[in-house]
Amino acid sequence: MLRRHIRPGARGFTLIEVLMALGVVAVLATLALPNLSEALQRTRRIEAVSSLAALQQAQERHRGTQDAYTTELDALGWPEGLSPSGAYALEVAQASETGYLLIARATTGGAQAGDSRCAVLAMQVESGFTARGSACSGCTLAQPLADAPRCWGHP
After folding, report:
1. How many domains does the chain contain in total?
2. Closest CA to 121 of 131, 108, 109, 110
3. pTM of this prediction exceeds 0.85
4. CA angle, 39 as apex, 50 and 135 as ends, to 5°?
5. In terms of residue numbers, what domain contains 89?
6. Mean pLDDT: which of 54-58, 113-117, 129-133 is highest?
7. Which has fewest Cβ within 10 Å: 27, 132, 139, 154?
8. Is residue 101 situated within a structural domain?
9. DSSP alpha helices (H): ranges in the chain?
């Protein structure tokens, strides 16, 4: 027969105490989850900004050996046309002898698709001057270079 040895004065947690602790953990998790999602979105935006900066450098290297900038991502060393994590699709929307427009769009159904505020990031270089901007997911790119501080983190 099994004997249980319980030390005098020793006791465990009651069911109520365990449920209260679980309730506190659940409330804290509910409060922290939106902040975590927002932090992950900002991290992927930074990746898109970094990818656009790398494309900018590739464009300048290409222009150094050619007479104009290019719209071909293959020529810039980006054959897949995606940011490293695949959260953004990259494109060169326009290119001429004096400038170009680079765009990073959140991929449909991807990890960044829920970022409706900064679904499109754009960088335009014209005659040596750089402009940065963003657009929401439902916006057209008629004026893609508006609202740069919100998504780029600086004016």
Report:
1. 1
2. 131
3. no
4. 60
5. 15-152
6. 54-58
7. 154
8. yes
9. 15-65, 148-152
